[in-house]
Design goal:
The protein is of the alpha+beta class. The chain folds into five domains: 64-241 and 484-660, Glycosidases (TIM Barrel), CATH 3.20.20; 250-287 and 445-479, no CATH class; 308-440, Galactose-binding domain-like (Jelly Rolls); 664-720, no CATH class; 895-991, Immunoglobulin-like, CATH 2.60.40.2550. A hairpin with a 6-residue loop joins strand 15 and strand 16 (389-397). The longest helix is centred in the middle third of the chain and has 29 residues, at 470-498.
Length: 991
């Protein structure tokens, strides 16, 4: 072994060959336990340090002149998480170590969420007979926790309205018929608005006995959120602002209230029916009178006439003509899904041969019912390749007949090759259809039976907007926008001017269109939410057993996954931007990618903070080593192990902001006519633009809007940011390369010889290995020059005995303690200017677990390092100055000499990686022999360019034993050949 070869490890552990399987639908074997101590608040040499700095009286959070959060006139970023319901009010005996551990890991903000929930005995509204009095026991625990967070320098995002369930005892009319948590109605019902202000006063002005300050006077409160995920525009878009019997969520009382507000809005704007007609009726066009759909009523006696049942195995279904139930007439179509694989389009009830004409508006009307409550979707698309989609909408199916409407604007012409499809294969069961109609719409204005003075002007649905004139669309959108603006303005004014809140205030975090964004642009900062692979509930919402996930990696999403829509144009120039909820939900097998994605793109977009959802929702059990739900991360080592490095990178500004930001300027018509554009499938700009540039809105009231034509071509993958630091290769690798931080997430075993900043992925085992790698400098020096750095290698996690059913659910079989991590073997070539480095495996507190492994350079300033778990954490200590005359990185430049390296891993089962280097163009033969000298495999036989090369050999077809790998290389140097290079290594296959 020459002086440049790897030295023998001083820390002796069994060689782990990785999980037996990386299948997304099976429990892995060979997992190791690495439970991060819940009471650990220590500082360690090889973890990023976040010292406890108590929040001082002057440390109020504000908004600086640069449009970002500021602390004492200096910019500040928040790396946060959520404490939810009971998790927000831990026992006093545990609050201190919970706060200390949060600080140690890198969190400096906690969002308190669901404090007003109706299901917990520790809710702030529990046990008082109404929701107008606070539970003082829960409040005391909350305030004690806030005091402990404050000691650790951890700020608070305080939510006001989240899950409050109003009662008749609160003086609320139709309280038992409100939508869930009163959402939507809380925006326009004066009584509910007053009750929200009362709650804010009770909570924010109560003096905390442990700090001596009320929340309005406490600098530990960094920001206030008025209402969680609440948008009148979203309710309208989803067709829910109608009475409950008509499929909406409004009681007749609140439907009448909304109608009254609507007519008052119109009366103030126009004064008379004549003036309203003059504004709404220009541009009327007639509609078709005959439906394109053939046999849409199923009354011709043959169900097959015009209709086809399409099935994709393993799903199975059958269709029948049913004379026992109908929406009208005597017959309906009955489609029975007898076997489902969870994919809706695997069973389609469709009709083909329809036609659409570009820029025309079409409406599909139909009746449907099901044997159980579930969802289904309608699609309009081309019947042949390339299967272009023209329109899509999801609907909620009920057990009684219900009328449905979908309107779309054709973006192209497609004569006689359009199909109308109902996709119903997501769940086994029966669906009935009747009265299916598709017509080309005219353009309507004020109807002949509508009269402003008589109060009979209808609030049209969002899906109908394409069928009406611009004047009518402007007013219905403007009406809902006015109500929403009035609500948020009123709440903000009350908090600022009556309660004297000193910190930034946000309205909500549902941004489903330009009206929502324009409304939130009036607040102090902008917030948003997103999830990757959020669980779906085909039947009962939040069922403990009937749920599914897609269980797919975001890194292979070609449309920007959860990131593009989260970031693209939501923020506003001159205002802070946060993400208060984000997660890749457990038990998704690829969730370790999520934190790197979010922290990198948030930094690139210039975001001021984000909050992972969530840390914990449990009040008193913070110790049991088990993940017990979709979102809690505090016991999830696959997620938590990446927090220190990611927090260091985000809070420390190690990832550069966009160098070529894109600024969007919208005018009032962009906002008010957005239902026409959204309903027609129009897209002002592709969301994936945010994967290349920071994208923020400047105004929603521009006199001259920006011409977005040049932005409308979607960028192609791989997506590379304008700084060059972030690359998203949708083949399966996401990477971040900056001077002081390197990150990678994806299928590392398929990314051999990929250079990411100062590291090259040299080998990863087993095949298909998915992992996240983070390398961060622990000094103010770049990684290549830092004496101390930290490495995280995170994979996937499961509870012991967690039982999968197929690929998409574990039902309620979550398993038991302890949690287990899937090990991989990862080999990287690290560029460090040093004579040698020592790599320390770290323990569960980040402490040095052993003297570690000393590495000599395998090339100039290059160290081939083996990460052989069981631990996700390592510390790298560099010694000496290395060779300062060259700045070459691993994978760059031409090797000085031939070389064949020892295979990794060795022993192996059954796959190993073999690397070699060539200084010049060479004829290469790389052959594996058994102990009798018989050729087993010829891995390379041909001409190769200079550089480092890695190939793998799968010995799965061979028995255990010793094998030899021989490299024979002959240089090509003009008319003569240099002497051949020959080297052999010994390998051990252990089955």
């Amino acid at each position: 072994m020459n002086s440049r070869a790897r030295r023998v490890a001083l820390w002796s552990v069994p060689l782990l060959l990785g999980c037996a399987s990386f299948s997304p639908a099976q429990n892995f074997t060979g997992g190791y336990s690495f439970a991060l101590p819940p009471q650990d608040t220590t500082t360690q040499t090889f973890l990023p340090a976040f010292p406890a700095r108590p929040i001082a009286p002057q440390d109020f959070i504000g908004v600086g002149l640069d449009g970002h959060f500021s602390l004492n006139d200096a910019p500040v970023r928040f790396f946060g998480t959520n404490c939810v319901a009971d998790g927000a009010v831990p026992a006093k005996t545990k609050a201190s170590f919970i706060a200390g551990r949060l600080r140690k890991m890198g969190f400096n903000l906690i969002r308190f969420h669901h404090l007003d929930n109706p299901w917990s005995t520790l809710s702030l509204l529990y046990g008082t007979g109404d929701t107008r009095h606070l539970n003082l026991y829960a409040l005391d625990r909350l305030e004690f926790f806030i005091a402990e967070l404050k000691k650790n320098g951890v700020y608070v995002n305080m939510n006001l309205h989240v899950a409050r369930t109003f009662r008749t005892a609160d003086g609320v009319t139709a309280a038992d018929s409100l939508p869930e948590f009163g959402k939507g109605v809380t925006i326009f019902d004066p009584r509910l608005i007053w009750l929200q202000q009362e709650y804010a006063s009770q909570l924010l002005t109560h003096v905390n006995p442990y700090t001596g300050l009320s929340m309005v006077n406490d600098p530990a409160i960094a920001m206030i959120e008025v209402t969680n995920e609440n948008s009148l525009f979203r309710f309208w878009r989803d067709g829910l602002l109608t009475p409950i019997p008509l499929g909406g969520v409004l009681s007749f009382y609140h439907d009448a209230m909304l109608d009254s507000l609507w007519h008052a809005y119109l009366a103030a704007a126009y004064g008379s029916t004549t003036a309203l007609a003059a504004a709404w009726n220009p541009g009327l066009q007639p509609a078709d009178t005959v439906s394109q759909v053939r046999n849409g009523s199923y009354e011709n006696g043959g169900i097959v006439a015009g209709w086809t049942l399409e099935q994709h195995s393993p799903a199975a279904a059958a269709a029948f003509l049913d004379s026992t139930t109908a929406s009208s007439g005597s017959y309906s179509a009955r489609v029975e899904v007898t076997q489902s694989d969870g994919v809706d389009w695997h069973v389609q009830w469709k009709q083909t041969g329809l036609r659409i004409i570009k820029d025309s508006v079409y409406t599909v009307r139909f009746a449907a019912r099901g044997d159980v409550v579930r969802t289904f979707s309608l699609t309009l698309q081309k019947e042949s390749s390339p299967w272009t989609g023209y329109g899509w909408m999801s609907f909620a199916l009920s057990t009684s007949w219900k009328q449905y409407t979908y309107t779309f604007k054709a973006g192209t012409s497609d004569p006689l090759d359009t199909r109308l499809t109902f996709s119903i294969g997501a769940q086994a069961g029966t669906t009935w259809f009747d009265d299916v109609v598709m017509v080309r719409e005219g353009t309507g204005g004020l109807g002949p039976a509508e009269n402003l003075e008589e109060g009979t002007v209808r609030r049209i649905g969002y899906a109908e907007c394409l069928a009406y004139t611009d004047g009518r669309i402007r007013d219905i959108t403007g009406f809902y926008l006015r109500l929403q603006n009035d609500y948020f303005d009123r709440m903000r004014e009350y908090l600022k001017n009556v309660l004297h809140v000193r910190v930034p205030i946000v309205g909500t975090n549902w941004n489903f269109g330009l009206p929502d964004r324009a409304s939130q642009a009036r607040m102090d900062y902008i917030d948003n939410h997103a999830y990757w692979d959020h669980p779906s509930f085909p039947g009962v919402p939040w069922s403990a057993t009937d749920w599914t996930i897609a269980n797919q990696p975001m890194v292979r999403s070609t449309n920007g996954g959860a990131i593009a829509g989260l970031m693209a144009g939501v923020g506003v120039k001159g205002k802070p931007f946060t993400v208060s909820e984000y997660n890749h939900a457990f038990p998704n097998r690829y969730q370790s990618e999520g934190i790197l994605f979010l922290s990198a793109y948030a930094a690139f977009q210039g975001a001021d903070g984000f909050m992972l959802f969530d840390y914990s929702g449990a009040a008193d059990d913070w110790e049991t080593d088990r993940v017990n739900g979709y979102f809690d991360i505090h016991r999830n080592t696959a997620m938590m192990s990446l927090i220190p490095a990611s927090a260091s990178a985000f809070r420390g500004g190690l990832v550069a902001p966009s160098s070529q930001p894109v600024t969007l300027r919208f005018d009032r018509d962009d906002v008010l006519l957005s239902p026409r554009k959204d309903g027609g499938g129009a897209q002002l700009y592709p969301p994936t633009l945010a994967l290349l540039h920071a994208v923020r809105a400047e105004t929603y009231e521009a006199v001259v809007p920006a011409d977005l034509t040049a932005l409308q071509t979607p960028p192609a993958a791989p997506y590379v940011t304008d700084t060059g630091e972030i690359t998203w290769n949708t083949d399966g690798l996401f990477s971040v390369a900056t001077p002081r931080f390197v990150g990678a997430a994806g299928f590392l075993s398929s990314s051999i010889n990929t250079r990411i900043g100062d590291v090259v992925i040299h080998a990863a085992s087993p095949p298909g290995a998915f992992a996240a790698l983070a390398w961060v400098s622990l000094t103010d020096r770049p990684l290549a020059q830092s004496r101390l750095s930290h490495v995280t290698v995170s994979t996937m996690l499961q509870n012991t005995g967690m039982a999968w059913d197929g690929t998409s659910t574990v039902h309620d079989k979550w398993g038991s303690p302890p949690t287990l991590i899937c090990p991989i073997l990862l080999i990287g070539r690290f560029h460090v200017a040093a004579d040698s480095i020592r790599v320390h495996p770290l323990g569960t507190s980040g402490e040095v677990a052993s003297p570690g492994t000393v590495y000599a350079p395998s090339d100039t300033n290059t160290f081939t390092v083996v990460f052989n778990q069981p631990t996700p954490w390592y510390g790298i200590e560099a010694f000496g100055g290395g060779v300062t005359s060259t700045g070459s990185r691993p994978g760059e430049g031409v090797p000085e000499r031939y070389g064949l390296f020892q295979n990794y891993p060795n022993p192996f089962n059954p796959v190993t990686a073999i690397s070699y280097r060539l200084p010049v163009v060479s004829r290469v033969r790389l052959v594996v022999y058994d102990v009798l000298g018989r050729e087993v495999a010829r891995l390379v036989d041909g001409r190769q360019m200079p550089g480092e090369h890695t190939v793998s050999w799968d010995g799965g077809g061979s028995a255990s034993g010793v094998f030899f790998c021989r490299l024979l290389a002959t240089a090509e140097s003009g008319r003569t050949s240099a002497p051949a290079f020959e080297q052999t290594i010994k390998m051990l296959l252990v089955r």
